[in-house]
Amino acid sequence: MNRNFCLDLQDGSKIPGANIQLWLCGNNNINQQFKITKFYSSHASGYAIYSRANGLALSPYNSFKGNFNSYNLYTLPFNIYMNRHLFSMYQFKY
User: Fold this and answer.
1) What is the pLDDT of residues 36-73, one digit of tens each?
2) End-to-end CA, the chain
3) Beta strand extents in the chain (DSSP E only)
């Protein structure tokens, strides 16, 4: 772990499929600001994470690109495959 790096929306892209990367933390960098929302439905529940910069939900990259040997995060509208955008949250101490 390195506390100098943050999740970051690459190039502030507004396009669905935009990559999430690790980048040096910046002062109030909107590309590094995310909103976590609890989601419930009859089919799924969990936490959705939205980029403040583009308003899109974070998703596992491999399910979008079809490469199951490589994992990453990207952004898509939440209403597309909403159960793929849901995360579980666990508390841990380090």
Assistant:
1) 999 988 888 899 999 999 999 998 755 555 555 556 78
2) 10
3) 5-9, 19-24, 34-40, 45-51, 57-60, 73-76, 86-87
